[in-house]
Amino acid sequence: MEKSLNEILEKPFSFDKIGRVIIESDKVLRVINDRTHIELYEKIINSTFVEELFSKGLIRTRVSYQDRNCLILEHKKIPFILHPNEYTNEMFWEAAIMYIQLCQMLYEKFGAVTIDAHPWNLSYDGPNPVFFDFSSITYGKNISNNWMLEFEKYMAIPIKLSSFSKKTYGFSLEYRKEHNQGFGLKLMEKRWYSQFFNRSFRKIFQDNSADVVYPKLLKWLLKNKPVTSKIEYWFNYNQSHNAKPEIPKTEKQKFVYNILSNQKPEKVLDLAANKGFYSIMAEKLGAKVLAIDYEERTADTCRQKVMDNNCNVTIAHFNFCYPTPAAGIGLTLKNSFDRFRSDIVLALGLIHHVCIKQNLPVSIFCNICKNYAKEGIVLEFVDPSDIHISNWKEPVPDDYSILHLKKYMKDKFSKISMVDITTNEGVNRTLIYFYN
Predict the structure, then answer these.
(1) Residue 236 domain flag
(2) Which InterPro entries does this one have (predicted)?
């Protein structure tokens, strides 16, 4: 080990039922002292099935240290942990399927079940869901009552909301915004909710043995696929202009490509990803990438394009104007600024929509971008004379200008690189790289 056992054990750690979790810059360590669980986790890691477990969604893990009374597991660190309300409904549904299939395999191969059934033990690593709470795995034959209630409350209800009808579809996202407490969660504790929530779901748990429950749950999930999300305004936007991400064609594409290839950022956050052209570009240049879009169908399509291109880009369904606040016990689940912070932030084709159409103050726009960015921001400024803005007939804020952008960015990013893009078709834009 690079560090002594004592150095590791003296580090601050977070709450865990079985051991302690130590989060470092490039990895996550999990210290286990219980003999029964040491035996189980050694069996899992050393089994011939471990690669299949990883491919099914178990967080990639290796043994970092072991003796009779101590086992230290080293987990792959997920670059961007997502809150459940940052998934699309389809992503949430697929994460639940992954989890139950993983639980099935753990039970069939090792006689193990999981203690918890809530979505805060899940996230996405690239386009694929993962389960990372390794020490939730324990020996067992039966599903506990607490597990059943957690799965129903935090997983099944939002999935049912998204699959029941187009009228209830949007409530799934609102329900998933709540962490342990909230109006929706409290409402669903009332008896009358069962009139909406199919009573047949609870019949799944009449026999609580794992070999009965898991197949029934999987069958229920497959029957409750979310309804197809609607096509919104930006779904048909031509982002690529028939170019490949690794071979830039337009001036805008070349500007972004040159910055990413020269700076070589470890992490890139694409704040208005659309179908992921620039996110895929950044990933192919070696970055860990989070692609955000607030249109659900567009975000799902972006995820599919990422998979088609064999890229490891994580997707989030997210509204730029409303960063996710911290949540959980002691606010241990960090806010989106902390979880998504990246070396370079891409804010392309965004500012005019949120600052003119949605009336977000320009200074707040800049502050949001700065809170996400460590080294620089690539911003596309659309001039008020641009045909796309002039046709809106919307009032333009007095401080909607490059001069004010420089002023608002200066406290963190005082240097700039710019290129103007104008065309005979009325396009008037400036690409700006703010950096230090």
Answers:
(1) no
(2) SAM-dependent_MTases_sf
Residue ranges making up the domain that contains 127: 84-223
What's the pLDDT tens digit per position in 30-87? 999 999 999 999 999 999 999 999 999 999 999 999 998 999 999 999 999 999 999 9
Among 25, 50, 76, the domain boundary falls at: 76
Tokens of 147: 């597990």
pLDDT digits (tens, 9 = 90+) for 375-400: 999 999 999 999 989 889 899 999 99
> Which of 344, 282, 338, 341 shows the shortest CA–CA distance to 313?
282
Instruction: Tell me if 352 is assigned to some domain.
Output: yes
- For residue 92, count CB atoms less than 10 angstroms from its CB and return exposed for 0-12, middle for 13-18, buried for 19 or more: buried
* Dist. CA 286–CA 284, nearest whole Å: 5
Q: Taking all residues of the chain, what is their mean pLDDT, rounded to a whole number?
A: 92
Task: Judge whether 242 lies within some domain.
Answer: no
Report how far residue 415's alpha carbon sits from residue 420's, in angstroms, rounded to the nearest whole number: 17
First vs last Cα of the chain: how many Å apart? 37
Count structural domains, the chain. Answer: 3
Structure tokens at 110: 């090792």
In a domain? residue 206: yes
Output the CA–CA distances (angstroms, integers) from residue 328 to 71, 89, 179, in the order listed: 28, 22, 6
